[in-house]
Amino acid sequence: MAHEASRAGMIRNVVVIVALWEIIGRLGLVAGGALPAPSGILLQLWADRADYPQHVLATVSGSGLGFLIGNVVAVLAGLIFVLMPATLRLLRGVNIAIFALPPIAIAPILNLTLSGMAPRVTLAALGVYFVTMSATVIGLSQYDTRSGDVVRAYGGGNWMVMRLVRLRGAVPDVLSGLRIAAPNAVLGAILAEFGGGGRWGLGSYLLGSLGRGDPFRLWGIGLVATVIAGLSYAVFAIISERVLGTTRSVTLNTAIPAPASALSPIGRLALACGAVLLPFVAWWAFVTFTGVPDMIAKTPLGVIDYLFVGDQSAIARQKLIAALAETLPVAFVGMVCGLGFAFLLAVLAQMSPAVIRAVMPIALFTQTMPLVALTPLLVLLVGRGYAVTMWITISVTFFPAFVLLVQGISRVPQSVLDLPRAYGATAWTEMRKVSIPAALPYLFAATRLTVPRALLGVMIAEWLATGTGLGNLLNQSRGYLDYGMIWTVASVSVLLSVAIYYAVLEVERATLKRLGMQMVE
Amino acid sequence: MDRRQFLGTGLAGLALTALPIRAAAASPLAMQAAWINDAEFSGYFLAIDKGYYPENGLELTYLPGGPDVIPESTIIAGRADLALTTPDTTTRAIAEQGAKFKIIGAQYQKSPHGIVSLKKNPIETPADLIGKTVAVPPVNTMTMEALLKVNGIARDQVNIVPYAYDPTPLVRGEIDASLDFTTNVPFTIGTLGEEAHSFLLYDHGVTIFNDTVVVTEDVLKEKRGDLVAWLRASRRGWEENLVDPAAYPPQWADTWFAGTGRTIENEIYFNTAQKGLILSDAGVFAMTDESIEHNIEALSAIGIRATRDMFDTTLLEEL
After folding, report:
1. How far apart are alpha carbons A81 and A1 in whole angstroms?
2. Least CA distance to B133: which residue of chain A?
3. According to the model, what pLDDT value does residue B245 have?
4. How distant is the alpha carbon of residue A430 from its chain centre?
5. Structural contact between residues A229 and B282, judged by C-beta atoms closer than 8 angstroms
6. Which residues does the UniProt record annotate as the domain SsuA/THI5-like (chain B) (predicted)?
7. Structural domains present in chain A
């Protein structure tokens, strides 16, 4: 019953938003009419209907295949990481590097080394891997140890615990991972198409349409991309709604988790070194095995040579430092804002679920609307200053953080919430004393998740709107055929993401240890 | 060259000598275009449709470009044999990175790049750019810098912002001008209810070609005959296409131009506007000594040490 009421509320909210949008569009209130009315977009969509099927088919098949491959690898990897925690430590560097790879930097490289559909499938797969892998690891490690104790008491081993408790317990987490991953796959595929030079795909269509100055067409393409992403999101949201009821604990586990497996200091050191070295080994292997000539594909040594040894290295360093000084402060502020916004909304959503219904459609829309189409509009709205960078950064960081935080807050068992309620606490006290502390591990996880996205958001804004910083440097270097700089920017941005990730991790470890909570991987 | 390829070319060579030319096995050749399918590449589409490449013993693979496709990269990686490039990037890569490229022809005698503004707020000369905001595609930053340098304007006197090939900011007055193909964007500006004003960079000291036909030295050595055949077939395609620029684009609405999101009227405008930039008394793709000299001068003004030996005119001479 409540369920139906909530659905009706969702529909009502969407109707209100669309009606408002129509009025704003008709009256040309936003950016001198650059935001078109939905009716006009639909009319243009109908006029272009013959163009769409082949483009949609290309995008759906590319992103679908990437989604499948990326997720199968991610779930298997998550399983292995939980069964053998040493592998997680060893591959942490690789995992974060994959997540932090800026798609705008690797799209041209993928387009060069792979052919046909492979670049878009790879970019889509890379876009989903990290999200699903971390969701799987979270799900498998955040299980109720008491259920495990029951299985063990009856003679079950690790594998039985895995099969009967942890795998089942992980299902909602994996599903929420897939939910975030689905739009990522679509975006990855579109981004690769945008630069790939293929004939078909929504990205290629968008590119051809950009020069027409026709906002109806651009928004139509954005709308179709959004619908594809939204449908894939909805499928997993519905499945997860059906599944969640069976796996929630009824009471809170009060056992403090045992410290991680005791490793000798030498073993730890070896793992840490391995984690640092492995991404470079993988990079080296990729460059070697694809057989792309040295001039285009730089190995780690090639980058060091470019940046510190070669005769142009002083100029290269100077350019890089100037770009970093422009990019980093904005990325930091944007990340804090996006995260704060997500946290605020997640808390609000828990206190009044109507908020989540009002915000979700907008959040999903901003998330899946191709940034290449959204950015020109944002430029007309807020200009080419820091504001546009801020907006884009918040929009790319907000959504994954929000989903993760809502997940964390909603997983607090009912009985724990009953306690403050029995003592007459207000909803806010309940939130403050129970839900927010319980969601703390998720806030940290969300922060780590947001770091590379913030950097990426800033770079996209710089590339398309402001013409400053790392994003612009990357794009200009392509014009100069300065492959050394392309690889340098890509590797420096990954290294930075990893460094900040570890800084957050240290704070997280200290805080959660003090509170006796388990870390969310 | 691996064994199979070696055998393949060997057999093709045998076949070529043993059989009448009409039945010769076609040798594969791949070309990388500079952009997505539009009128800029009409000559090739026509030559493909009319079978001029097979007639010249070629089996052509045509690869469209896009904003992330760096044509030079495609030939370095060996995924295409020849690419259409901008000469400033190519010559700079040769001079500064030791890239082994040769320019064997030029589609545009005069680059279509120009400064496009609105008639109601026209930018008539490079000097008018001072204090204005100009949108430039980041990959063309060098070309813009060339214009400023040649005309004695300091880089910081002009506000350069990134350009995403969307004329909306120009029409809305958010920017004052853009660096774009003068053969293309004025049409769109017209459909948006404004009138465009433009001048060619070529007419203001940036005397360079565009869509230069570039190959690696290795390909030049191994496939010289095929490259000459490509030039011959492509020249024929271009000449035929430019006789009546309005004739062919409509025929490609459902083939080459299907699903690009652009209109056929736009392609006809483009095809018509580029006619004077492509045709040359010395034939399509020509690189006369005089025009090469102009290129070298303009490039040296922005610090690119272009030299005469980067341009190989001997293939054109065989046509």
Report:
1. 41
2. A384
3. 96
4. 30
5. no
6. 40-246
7. 28-252 (1.10.3720.10), 298-521 (1.10.3720.10)
Name the residue ranges covered by the structural domains of chain B.
3-110+209-317, 113-204
Architecture of domain B3-110+209-317: 3-Layer(aba) Sandwich (3.40)
Give me the amino acid identity at A286: F
Question: So what's the pLDDT on residue B12?
Answer: 44
CB distance B88 to B141 below 8 Å: no
Domains B3-110+209-317 and B113-204 share a fold: yes
The contacts of residue A125 (CB under 8 Å, 6+ apart) are A66, A67, A69, A70, A73, A185, A188
Contacts of B120 (CB under 8 A, 6+ apart): B194, B195
Q: What angle do CA A393, A399, A400 make, to 5 degrees?
A: 105
**Cα–Cα distance list, A221 to A165, A196, A235 (Å):** 44, 18, 21
Residue A323's φ and ψ, nearest 5 degrees, are -65, -40
Closest CB to B68 among A195, A379, A380: A195
Segment B35-38 long-range contacts (CB within 8 Å, at least 24 positions apart): B35/B64, B35/B65, B35/B66, B36/A197, B36/A204, B36/A207, B36/A208, B36/B64, B36/B65, B36/B66, B36/B260, B37/A199, B37/B64, B37/B256, B37/B257, B37/B260, B38/A208, B38/B184, B38/B257, B38/B260, B38/B262, B38/B266, B38/B267, B38/B270
Q: What residues of chain B, 27 to 86, have a C-beta less than 8 Å from chain A?
A: 36-38, 63-70, 72-74, 76-79
How many degrees, rounded to 5, is the angle at CA B90 between CA B87 and CA B95?
120
Give pLDDT tens digits for A319-369: 999 999 999 999 889 989 989 988 888 888 777 777 776 776 676 666 666
3-state secondary structure of A264: coil
Closest Cβ opposite residue B188 in set A197, A211, A383? A211
Q: Which of B94, B168, B266 to mutate to probe the A interface, most A CBs <10 Å?
A: B168
Q: What is the pLDDT of residue A18?
A: 83
Q: What is the pLDDT of residues A84-131, one digit of tens each?
A: 888 888 888 888 788 777 677 677 677 767 777 888 898 889 888 988
What is the C-alpha to C-alpha distance for residues B176 and A486, in angstroms, rounded to an integer?
30
- In tens, the pLDDT along B226-252 reads 999 999 999 999 999 999 999 999 999
